[in-house]
């Protein structure tokens, strides 16, 4: 059932207008992010901007939404040139952006977040009750199922995204820009988002969606513009594109699928979890007497609908969330308490779900981020007598940036200036450059383009073949089936079903994910 109920009598005139970007160029130092790019957005259409990480997609649409300004080129609305100097100007022109990482305030309610920045002035009275009523009216107008009084940090990821969209609709925004909106969503939530976008299209809004996934373009887009290395390589309408043509425009030639042989024998258990219990953010039992085992040279994939304990499990195994009870065994040694430092010393590599919170320090350079673990360990190759060997750090960083195809590969660049996908490759480079005994990887290909996703999968398989035990948590069942040796389904904090991926029954996996096997 659609998240948005069509109510054409409420929305009788289109708020969207024809937007044209012509000859847009934008550079960051020596890096040309956009090179004379043309892009057009029309009312009543969903226009996908497709490209690999670092292709310039987000840069282009951040200029349309006022967060950046072009070095050259023009932006026009209904044929009239406009200058979009900041986000407030863009909002005034009816253009709003939903960012890949939420800019809302978790501690505030839905209603408070939606009206944030639009509260009454100094001499006006602010009423939480009246605010909630106004927001409820907007939600009712658009047929959105949201509780205005719910705190944002109590909502699932897809509901938070709905709040972001309603926040724009509350301002009567006609042009909605979404930056990688499916990166944090499971398949069921992606379907619900696409229903929402289809309803907006029917109401006359124009929607620009940044993505790197061909499947999403095929499912939702009316038009697609493909970018590679800052330039447009194709701009096609619905009747002109298919997956083969888009793949060629995206990467230059079709990519072969990652091939692997199914394994039938493994080493001893390297990561064992026994009767593990972990509390959630509100004290609820998120992981409930969970058992699992990952053997040497094996990838165990964890599938499940978001909110069934995946995040809490990964955080507990990463040492950033306490264990309530149970044990975790690493290479034969049982533990009831884990710390990041202790795990690192034990040869455990972690790729967390939230790279900006746990994995990347945006204000440090790429080289400094890559060398964090080595410095903490007192590795003599990068530190001596308490001093950093910066020349050696730069040399090692350059090698890793090249090997992992991080773009741009400038070791002195701030990590916060990388695209999300390149930040993910930076984390992968640091955590897996030296073969670990255990790899805990949460959504490692989230936000990555086709080529980078293939690279990640090959790296995970190479780590497995080198003897690592890999625990892979992903919302993408196709990914799990592509690289895992076994799949376990987590439901309400427990492993509800396990199977080998060779000949796996996806119907049974799907039923386990929704609790239908209980």
Fold and architecture overview:
33% of the residues lie in helices and 25% in strands. The chain has 18 helices and 22 strands. The protein has helices spanning 57-64, 87-92, 110-115, 128-142, 157-170, 187-202, 214-220, 243-251, 310-317, 340-345, 355-359, 366-370, 372-377, 390-403, 420-432, 450-465, 477-483, 506-513, and strands spanning 19-28, 31-41, 46-51, 72-77, 80-82, 95-98, 175-179, 206-211, 223-228, 231-237, 269-279, 285-295, 298-303, 325-330, 333-335, 348-351, 383-384, 387-388, 438-442, 469-473, 486-491, 494-500. It has a 6-stranded mixed β-sheet, with helices on both faces. The protein has a 6-stranded mixed β-sheet with strand order 16-19-20-13-21-22, with helices on both faces. Strand 21 (486-491) and strand 22 (494-500) form a beta hairpin. Helix 15 (420-432) packs parallel to helix 16. It is globular. The chain starts with 18 loop residues before the first strand and ends in a 5-residue tail after the last helix.
